[in-house]
Specification:
By secondary structure, the chain is mainly α. It is built from 6 helices and no strands.
């Protein structure tokens, strides 16, 4: 992958008002049973190809299967970190404090 593409943010690469890479990825993960498919499939090349096809449909062509896998892993680890923090701090039961904590821990 050319080095010029490494720094393109996932949340600002939508073209002409189309969705960004992160929006497409989150939409795909939350549609149907895609997240369950992701978690239970040992070889995910075909799942990445599905996501890349949606991105390509929206003129996003600089992402790769490896980049998608890494981003999903990053999202999972970030979620788990915040969930653990909320659980162990007792903030999970206070929605006002929990929202602020999530925003500061997972910008």
């Amino acid at each position: 992958m050319p080095s010029s593409f490494r720094g393109i943010p996932w949340d600002t690469d939508g073209i002409n008002g189309q969705p960004s890479s992160i929006t497409i990825l989150l939409d795909w993960l939350t549609a149907n049973n895609n997240y369950a498919r992701w978690c239970t499939t040992p070889v995910r090349d075909h799942l990445c190809a599905e996501i890349l096809a949606v991105m390509s449909h929206h003129d996003i062509t600089h992402r790769t299967a490896r980049g998608i896998s890494m981003k999903i892993d990053q999202l999972k680890h970030g979620y788990q970190h915040v969930a653990d923090l909320l659980e162990h701090s007792g903030l999970a039961n206070d929605p006002n404090t929990a929202i602020g904590t999530v925003q500061s821990e997972a910008p």
